[in-house]
């Protein structure tokens, strides 16, 4: 069993850390808001006042925080992991964050002989609790093999995609796919309603064929029932789309569908729905249509 | 067994008519270009010089032609089905066409005591050959039950969606879903390539989760292999999107995702790819990106 520094105990992180405790690992946790780590501390995790202290002497560090600026501070800040006296030989950032930042962290980590993996996930809070996340990994493949037993407690599909940043890039592809698919699903369901169709019958009629998607088959019925509980928060999806847009811009790649989706999601947030699930896009398109 | 007037023996129609011959039905066929009906005639189908003549005395008429104006002429023209001396009691238009026109045909048909069904399909030429189409039906439910044994030779999932026009409306929902999903898939795969990722690995990593769709899992690999053979022609998809946009406009429903997808597909056609498959959208987005 390993000693794991675990930074970031939000909804996702707390569920993942809990699974690692169950597996018998020793955890040293840090979170900006300590209260969110109390349940883990009560179960035997140790507390550290900073990422640097948490990481000092650990076998591996796992981070899942909020925004790229939080990732940057967690790794590169004065109280960050790379500033530890005796940092872990492998660090894993599971935040959905900037591919560019992932490469920069990997380079700076290498200067201290640390191998850094970027390993964002998909599968949401349910996947985090049940250990069924998809984990998209960039960075040194040998390092991945060393920590694979740990990651296997957290996810079922663990894919190595290439050098540092490749995990984040793959997650961006994931979000690009979801963004436009969601636009289509919302427009399709609104069209169905306007046309006087029974939207559930329509989902049954089209969801199994060429128009089928995880989104229409899983979130479509929730939209029909007007259950907009998150799944995945609008505000986090907005962050992800902004990163993808920025990277695409940097690569000179026009992404008109993603750009339009992001604008529509800005409307969702502007209408006060940033803490609903991503399928609340329906509400913004309804308002656009005066419905 | 029934006597079926079958109008329209293009790729889809010929395959469907062939299955009805196999089932033992008597077919009277008409097509604008007679040459495309010859294979059916050689197998025992009778020829008629117009939809009116084909329909005269038949038990049922099935039509699958090109554009809404062709549907209109086939039903409402001077040599159309409704002008037959002894028209069939049930007529079924399986063209993807205008919901508004479907309602108009149903009304005019009712004046002659004919029940008209709109029953567009999805599943492409493979589905037509194998009898595995999805059939989305609008119109009188009793009429559908009477012809269901015939339709069961053509499709596996036959869903009644509501009154006349509802089949076409449901097909429009289907196309609205596909349009934006395809934009997302193309942008995602181009992003993957620009980022130096292996696109096939990316499809494997993300296609089974929340970003999954029929499009990414079936057409994604074809795009990667640069096989743009149709499936479904760009020019036909353009027709369908135009109908959907027109109907949405009529219903005061803004559909920004669909509108943008149609504009991008106009570019595909402008670049000379109207007779490639719908996934040739990738080529237009590549050119947009100077790739």
Shape of chain A: elongated
- Give the second-level CATH assignment, the architecture of the largest domain in chain A: 3-Layer(aba) Sandwich
Which pair of protein chains has the largest interface, and what are the residue counts? A-B, 72 and 72 residues
Number of helical regions of chain A: 13
Order of helices and strands of chain A: EHEHEHEHEHEEHEHEHHHHHH
- By CATH reckoning, the class of the largest domain in chain A would read Alpha Beta
Coarse structural class of chain A? alpha/beta
Question: Biggest sheet of chain A: strands side by side, in what order?
Answer: 3-2-1-4-5-6
Runs of chain A in which pLDDT lies below 50 for 5 or more consecutive residues are: none
Question: How many domains of chain A?
Answer: 2
- Provide the CATH topology of the largest domain in chain A: Rossmann fold
What proportion of the residues of chain A form beta strands (DSSP E)?
5-15%
**Beta strand count of chain A:** 9
Report the C-alpha radius of gyration of chain A, rounded.
20 Å
Average residue pLDDT of chain A = 97
């Amino acid at each position: 069993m390993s000693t794991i520094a675990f930074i970031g105990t939000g909804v996702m992180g707390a569920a993942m850390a809990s699974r690692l405790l169950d597996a018998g690992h020793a955890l040293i946790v840090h979170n900006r808001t300590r209260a969110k780590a109390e349940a883990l501390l009560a179960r035997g995790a140790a507390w550290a006042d900073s990422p640097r202290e948490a990481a000092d002497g650990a076998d591996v560090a796992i981070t899942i925080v909020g925004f790229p600026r939080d990732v940057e501070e967690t790794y590169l800040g004065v109280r960050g992991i790379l500033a530890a006296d005796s940092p872990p030989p492998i660090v894993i950032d599971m935040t959905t964050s900037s591919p560019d930042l992932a490469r920069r962290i990997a380079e700076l980590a290498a200067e201290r002989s640390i191998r850094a993996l970027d390993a964002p996930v998909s599968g949401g809070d349910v996947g985090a609790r049940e250990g069924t996340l998809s984990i998209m990994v960039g960075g040194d493949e040998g390092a991945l093999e060393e920590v694979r037993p740990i990651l296997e407690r957290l996810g079922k599909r663990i894919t190595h995609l290439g050098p540092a940043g490749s995990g984040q890039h793959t997650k961006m592809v994931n979000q690009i796919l979801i963004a436009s698919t969601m636009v289509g699903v919302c427009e399709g369901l609104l069209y169905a309603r306007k046309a006087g169709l029974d939207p559930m019958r329509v989902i049954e009629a089209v969801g199994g064929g060429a128009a089928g998607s995880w989104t229409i088959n899983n979130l479509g019925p929730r939209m029909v029932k007007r259950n907009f509980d998150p799944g995945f928060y609008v505000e986090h999806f907005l962050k992800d789309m902004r990163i993808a847009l920025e990277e695409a811009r940097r690569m000179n790649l026009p992404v008109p569908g993603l750009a339009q989706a992001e604008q529509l999601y800005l409307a969702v947030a502007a209408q006060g729905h940033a803490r609903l699930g991503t399928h609340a896009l329906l509400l913004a398109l309804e308002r656009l249509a005066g419905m």
